[in-house]
Structure formats: structure tokens, C-alpha cells
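In this supplementary section we document a worked example of the pipeline. Step one takes a protein sequence of length 346 as its only input; no multiple sequence alignment statistics are reported here. Step two produces a three-dimensional model, which step three serialises into C-alpha cells for compact storage. The input and output of this example are shown verbatim.
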Amino acid sequence: MRSAAAALMRRYGDTDFVTGMRAYAALGVVLIHSGGAGLLSFGAIGERLTVLGAMGVQAFFVISGFSVSHSLAASATTGQYLVKRLFRLLPPYYAALLAYGIPWGASAENLAVHFALIDWLWPEFGNRIISIEWTIPVEAFWYLLVPVMLAIASRGPLHCLAMLTVAFLSAHPLYAAARLAGMDRELFFHSPLAHAFPFAVGVAAYLVRRHFPPTSNLVATAAVGFAVLLLAVHATFGVGMPHMVAILATGVVIIFGRGEALVVRALLLNPVVLLVGTVSYSVYLVHFGVIIQTRAYVSDPLLVFVVGAVASVLVSCVTYLLIERPAIRLGSACVRAMQRRSPRTA
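The serialised model returned by step three reads:
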């Protein structure tokens, strides 16, 4: 398993553990779509744990805000940054749309608005093919605005705090405006307008970590402990809104995580978690269809989750090698071509 993970994964230096965080976020989404793995039979605590699984999407958004900030800072131009990110995001998504949509009889119009990333504007089309595709236009939208967030927040702590505050508050007036425009609540939630804050937290985490990198394994251990405690208190007592709990827990671990810390190595850098994290985007795209097929043979909720998760990872290893990684390499090749045509000036 260690060699398989090593062969598949890309290296990110002292933030390799973020790949492990992606694994838990992906498995959380698999958990909610598989019916909760039997947790719902444990009453309110089980229900809150299951809902936290759905909040894996919010964790992904925070991680995305962090990762794209890093990608932007490492790119010579905004154009090169966008090429890298879109080649990473879109080819696997388009392949999944066709793999789901054609057998299930999706109309050409439905596929077209999905390909254009505007399906969230039409209730009859939005989230009707893969059942999780609403998040992809959200990602692409914030790829365009993260450079603005980063430019503002980089000007100093007060600017960073202002960026976070505006992002946190923005959902409320935007929702009011959406209601006046006739947009229903679900449609607004599936729009990019509702999700500024997790991306802003990811941007802030990038800046804080860059300026104040963790220097102590004890601090990293405390950060992971705080995140686990936050999740446990919410699951046990219902303290806090689930999406805010997931966002804050993710941000804290990103800021203070350190690969040398024992708890980080055990939870986020072991080979199994790294393998799942490496193919997590593919897991996210394929798992719903895998779960549907699993339910044709398995009825126990726990088995549906276990079999569905394992099968999704296995399928995703194949799609990662055949689609996702070649697309990433093609994006890198395009960036190199852009650099040769417009060399960076001092």
C-alpha cells in the first residue's frame, strides 16, 4: 500500500498532510450518500455525525482555498494559474458527466449547461446527473475570485480580517437578493454565491501558515486535538452549526499541522489515507454511481458504506491514472508552453 500511494501521489513538502485531509473529506461525502453506515440508528449523535460527513464538501472548499492560493503564488501569471487549475478540475468532471449522463439519458441541453458550469441557474438541470456536481461550478467560480481575495488579504492582518468578515457576511445579503430575484433556497445553496467563507478561510490559512509556520510538534498535536474536540462536541451536544464546525476544524489543522508530529503522521500521512487522498477527487466524482451499484447487492448500511468506499477508491485509482493525472500533466505542459512564449521577467 505504501508503494502504491508513493507511485500515485504528488509531493507538497511540509503540507503533504493536506492530502490526508482530502481523504477524510471524500469519505465523509461517501458516508452521507451511502446512508450513514448505520449511524442514524444511534439517535441524535449518529445523525449529527452523518451530517458532518456531508460537511466534507465544506472541508474541500477550505482545502481548495489553501491549495489554489499556493498554486497562484507559485505561478508566473494569473493565466498560468487558471490553466493549471482548470485542467485539474474539468477533464475528470467532463468524463464523469458523460459516463453518468449518456447511460442515464441526460438531454443534450442538460449536458451543455453542465459543461458550461451554469447548471445551477436552472432548477430542472442543476445537480441532476452526478448528484454532487453543484460543487464544480462553485470551485471554478472561486478560482476566479481567490486571486482577488489573496491580493486583499496579503496587504496585512487587518485586510485579511476584513476579507474574512466580508466573506462570512456576504451570504446573507446575497441570499436576500436571490430571494427577491425568485431563486429558491436550494438553488441559492448550490450556487457559488453561498460559499465565499470556506474559500476565504483557506486563503487566510495559506497566509498565516506562510508567515508563521508551525515550529512545534506540540502545537500541531494540539491543533489536531482541537479539531477532533470541536467535531466531537458538535456530534455529542449539537454545539455549533455543522458547516462552521467543519470549516474551522479544517482551517486550524491546515494552519498548525506539521508532518513530523506523531498524530499527524498517524492520522494524515499513513499510506492508506494518502492513497485515498490522492485519488479523492475521482472518489468524489465516481462514488455515487458505485453506491447505486453496491445497493443492488448489499442492503446493510454499514456494508454499503464499506463496500462502496473501497470500490470507489479502486475505481478512482484507475480513473486517476487514465484521466486525472494525464490532464494535470497536460495542464503543466500548457503552462510550460506559455512560459516559453512569455518568459518571466525580473
